[in-house]
Amino acid sequence: MAKGVKRGGKARPQVRRKALAPKKTAARAEAGEASLKRQLAASRLRESESRAQQAATAEILKVIARSPSDVQPAFDCIVRNASKLCKVPMATVILLDGAMLHLASSSLDIKRMVRFNKLWPMPIERAGVQGIVARDRKLANVRDVESDK
């Protein structure tokens, strides 16, 4: 008969707990360490991205302060920083004027974009993803520029 511990008037059998095998303990420790390393890397990445966004914002605000009456330098700074922050080859600022869209700035060299530049201004209904963004007032991330998807 197993020895019991009496609590509340009833005897309960003692249960011996097995010590975890050293291999399982080491595996759990390694898994915990790997998880912490992933969390630390993710945290460092978020911090780095936040610093980059703050630096871009500061640069844009300095440009605006230097030329408050000329918006073109600010638009150029916005597309340059957006392209860098989003790690994309092209960013644009497009202005909506009634039912027409106007290209204000692009991060690509204008000489390389001759055909693209000839499209502007364009009616909102013919503007593809730019028209959808202007119409719906929502951001869009276009994964394939050639198919607008």
What does this structure look like?
The protein is of the alpha+beta class and 149 residues long. 49% of the residues lie in helices and 15% in strands. It has four helices and five strands. Strand 3 (92-97) and strand 4 form a beta hairpin. The longest helix has 45 residues, at 22-66. The protein is elongated, with a radius of gyration of 30 Å. 7% of the residues are buried. The mean pLDDT is 81.
Supply database-style keywords.
149 residues; two-stranded antiparallel ribbon; 3-stranded antiparallel beta sheet; single chain; alpha+beta; 49% helix
Chart the SSEs and their pairings.
Elements: E1 4-7, E2 10-13, H1 22-66, H2 72-86, E3 92-97, E4 100-106, H3 114-117, E5 122-123, H4 128-136
Antiparallel strand pairs: 1-2, 3-4, 4-5
Helix pairs in contact: 1-2
